[in-house]
């Protein structure tokens, strides 16, 4: 499967299939069947164009190399259902937290840590919930869990977790920092050693000092809204989120307001860009644009935001089974996934339920290809777009 072109991994987590496509032509070059990847934990970029992900049915962490001779480079048993996935700056030491899965309440307190260099792995018990996770470098790595209700950042030494005895023992963090109870969204800037957590108050930040965490000033949202998703921009040292405002009632989702939020980590400046009403959530970072999708009963759009602050809007064909007025945007409906690589100007968007992927030139909004896959991509599926040396591995949290 060796190729120099950008590669798109498309996961149909309902059908249990991963499709491998070349970009921009959309040619399917490989398929991995019987693999139900965790859409919530997402894809984690690793050095050399590889990605890590979690098979929620088999209970395995997968390392995929779309540029190698074999797609599956490694499979390591981990606890599931996978909630979040992160690695240290070297891409060697990984942590996987567990969450709800198909359950109404959090029930699992298992955390798995993996050392890809030594093949060592361990499972421990932490705290029931839906914890986020970052793995800080700067010496022996620290695994930092972001807990909710009560909110806290809990720091564990990676070496201590890896040395835990069999039987999934309970572990106690050696450091705790308080957080608001509504944390949702994590990022880690390896250059400065900072970690970031999105809350209703703003973006909380902490810095590693030796084996401790030092809290720093909260970054305000600068708007009467909040972000539920946070990611690091590896291109220009910035944080991105989408601010959602309006009535919290999910039945009123067509009225939700959405703003692109960007905070420059070097200058401390924050910029806001209006995106329009409806459902906007995850974003993707191409070389020269930031991509969002907006779902709305009056029509869906791909939004491409440039450094000039201008949003280029491209209509997307309607989805059968899309969210409707009077219903929620989450339950039993089709959605869209979006993917990009900081090393290319291509963006991919799915059409949930139709098995289609739009491959678009982010500079112009022109659609180059629309491959139709052999599975329907229910719920929109999930994607990762990689070039072999695109620098995406600088974002150390699964997306």
From TrEMBL:
<dbReference type="InterPro" id="IPR011044">
    <property type="entry name" value="Quino_amine_DH_bsu"/>
</dbReference>
<feature type="region of interest" description="Disordered">
    <location>
        <begin position="374"/>
        <end position="399"/>
    </location>
</feature>
<feature type="compositionally biased region" description="Basic and acidic residues">
    <location>
        <begin position="387"/>
        <end position="399"/>
    </location>
</feature>
<protein>
    <submittedName>
        <fullName>Uncharacterized protein</fullName>
    </submittedName>
</protein>
């Amino acid at each position: 499967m060796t190729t120099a072109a950008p590669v798109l991994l498309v996961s149909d987590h309902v059908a249990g299939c991963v499709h491998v496509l070349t970009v921009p032509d959309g040619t399917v070059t490989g398929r991995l069947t019987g693999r139900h990847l965790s859409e919530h934990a997402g894809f984690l970029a690793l050095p050399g164009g590889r990605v890590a992900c979690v098979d929620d049915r088999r209970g395995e962490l997968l390392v995929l190399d779309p540029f190698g001779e074999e797609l599956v480079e490694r499979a390591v048993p981990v606890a599931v259902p996978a909630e979040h996935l992160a690695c240290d700056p070297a891409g060697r030491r990984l942590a996987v937290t567990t969450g709800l899965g198909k359950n109404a309440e959090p029930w699992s307190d298992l955390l798995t840590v993996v050392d890809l260099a030594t093949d060592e792995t361990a499972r421990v018990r932490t705290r029931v919930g839906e914890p986020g996770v970052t793995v800080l470098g700067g010496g022996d790595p620290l695994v930092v869990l972001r807990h909710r209700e009560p909110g806290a950042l809990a720091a564990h030494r990676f070496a201590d977790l890896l040395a835990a005895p069999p039987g999934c023992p309970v572990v106690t963090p050696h450091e705790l920092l308080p957080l608001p109870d509504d944390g949702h969204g994590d990022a880690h800037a390896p250059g400065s050693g900072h970690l970031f957590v999105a809350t209703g108050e703003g973006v909380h930040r902490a810095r590693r000092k030796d084996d401790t965490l030092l809290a720093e000033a909260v970054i305000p949202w600068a708007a009467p809204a909040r972000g539920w998703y946070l990611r690091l921009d590896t291109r220009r040292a910035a944080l991105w989120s989408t601010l959602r405002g309006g009535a919290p009632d999910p039945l009123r989702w067509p009225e939700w307001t959405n703003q692109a939020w960007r905070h420059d980590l070097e200058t401390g400046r924050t910029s806001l860009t209006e995106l329009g009403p409806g459902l906007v959530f995850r974003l993707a970072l191409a070389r020269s644009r930031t991509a969002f999708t907006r779902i709305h009963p009056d029509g869906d759009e791909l939004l491409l935001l440039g450094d000039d602050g201008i949003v280029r809007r491209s209509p997307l064909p309607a989805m059968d089974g899309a969210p409707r007025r009077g219903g929620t945007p989450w339950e039993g409906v089709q959605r869209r996934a979006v993917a990009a690589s900081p090393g290319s100007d291509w963006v991919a968007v799915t059409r949930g339920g139709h098995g289609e992927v739009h491959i678009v030139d982010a500079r112009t909004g022109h659609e180059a290809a629309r491959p139709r896959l052999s599975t329907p991509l229910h719920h929109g599926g999930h994607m990762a777009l990689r070039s072999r040396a695109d620098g995406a591995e600088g974002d150390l949290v699964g997306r």
